Amino acid sequence: MRVLVTGGAGFIGANFVHQTVRERPDVHVTVLDALTYAGDEASLSDVASAITFVRGDITDSPLVDRLVGEADVVIHFAAESHNDNSLSDPWPFVHTNVVGTFTLLEAVRRHGVRYHHISTDEVYGDLELDDPAKFTDQTPYNPSSPYSSTKASSDLLVRAWVRSFGVQGTISNCSNNYGPYQHVEKFIPRQITNLIDGVRPKLYGTGQNVRDWIHVEDHNTAVWAIVERGQIGRTYLIGADGEVDNKSVVETLLELMGQPADAYDLVSDRPGHDMRYAIDASTLRSELGWTPQYGSFRDGLAATIDWYRANEGWWRPRKDATEAKYATMGR
Ligand code: NAD
Ligand code: DAU
Predict the structure, then answer these.
(1) Enclosing domain of residue 79
(2) DSSP readout, 195-228?
(3) So what's the pLDDT on residue 121?
(4) Domain containing residue 33: CATH number
(5) Is pTM, for the whole model, over 0.90?
(6) Residue 127 and which of 4, 93, 174, 311 are 20 to 30 A apart at CA?
(7) What is the mean predicted confidence (pLDDT) over 236-259?
(8) How many structural domains is the chain composed of?
(9) What lines the ligand 1 site, CB under 6 Å?
(10) 105 three-class SS
C-alpha cells in the first residue's frame, strides 16, 4: 500500500509515520510537508531511509496531483494547528486548512484515491464544566476560533465531496493529543520546557478549562482502524476518556518535575477560550474494535517529560522564538 501523509513533519504526522514504519512493513510512506515553523524534518530522521520526503505546499495543485496519482491512500494531517496563532494572524489558517483541503479533495476526486481527513473536536465548540454531555458525531458544528472554524470548513468540504462527487472519504475528529515531537508552543511541552529552563508554568485565565487528553500513539492507531475498517462517508470521534482541567495538568507536571504544586503563574486568558471538550468515542470502540493503550495520563506525562529532557536538541532551537511570540500576546 502506498500512503501519502500530508503534514508528516509535524507532531501527530511524524508520530504516525514512525508508527507506520515500525508496524507496517507492507506500507510505503510518502510525506508531503511545507516545513512551516511547525514542521521539522529532524522529527523524521530516524525513519528517513524508509520513506520518501517531499517538501511542498498542499495548495500546490500540480505537485499534489502528481503525488496523489502515485498513492493508494491519502491521510491528511497538514494544517495550521495553533489557536493562539490563529487569533494573531488568521490568513495562513484559511490558506492551508481550507484551500489546502480543497486542493487535496480535487486531486483525490480526479484519481479516485481513498482519502482520510484528520480533524479536531474543536469544530463542535465547547461544553459547560457541569454539562454531562460529550461530543458525538451528531453534535452541531459551532467553532469558536479562526483555527477551529477553518477546520470545520475543511470537514464540510470533505462531506460535500463525498456526497456530490463520490470521493471515498472518512473524517476523524480527535481531542487534545500529547506525546513526543509536539511543538513547544502547545500547552504541555511549553510548561515542561519552561520548567526545564527554571521558568514558572503559565496558566491561561483561571486554569479551570478542561481538555480531553489522548496519547498521540492512541490517536494514530485509531486513524489506521478507520483507514482499514471505516465506512466511507462516516465521521468518527477519537478520544480516550481523558478529561482533566489545565490547573491539574500543571500541578501534575510540577509534582513530577520536583516543584511545589503552586509554583505556576496565572496569565491573561485566550480570547474566546473554549471551556471544555469531551469526546464520546463509543462508535469507534464498538464498531471498529479500537481501544486506547495508554491507560494512565500521569504515566504518559512522565514519559513525555523524559522525552523532552532527552531531546533538548530537538526543541531548543524553537523555544526563544516561541516565547517571544507569546510575549507579544501578553501570555
Ligand atoms: P502541527 O502544527 O504540529 O503540524 C502541522 C504540519 O503541517 C507541520 O509539519 C507543517 O509544516 C505542515 N504544514 C502546515 N501548512 C502546510 C502546507 N500549506 N502544506 C504542507 N504542509 C503544511 O500539527 P499537529 O498538532 O500535528 O496536528 C496535525 C493535524 O491533527 C491537524 O490537522 C490538526 O488540526 C489535527 N488535530 C490536532 C490535535 C492536537 O492535539 N494537536 C488534535 C486533534 C486534531
Ligand atoms: O482539541 C484538539 C485541539 O487541541 C487541536 O485541534 C489543536 O490543534 C491543538 O492545538 C489543541 O488545541 P488547544 O487550544 O486545546 O491546545 P493548547 O495546547 O494550545 O492549549 C491547551 C489548553 O491549555 C487550553 O485550554 C489553553 C491552555 N493553555 C495553553 C498554553 C499554551 C494554558 O493555560 N497555558 C499555555 O501556556
Answers:
(1) 2-178+213-238
(2) HHTT---EEETTS--EEE-EEHHHHHHHHHHHHH
(3) 98
(4) 3.40.50.720
(5) yes
(6) 93
(7) 98
(8) 1
(9) 6-7, 9-13, 33-36, 38-39, 57-59, 77-81, 96, 100, 118, 120, 151, 174, 176-177, 183
(10) helix
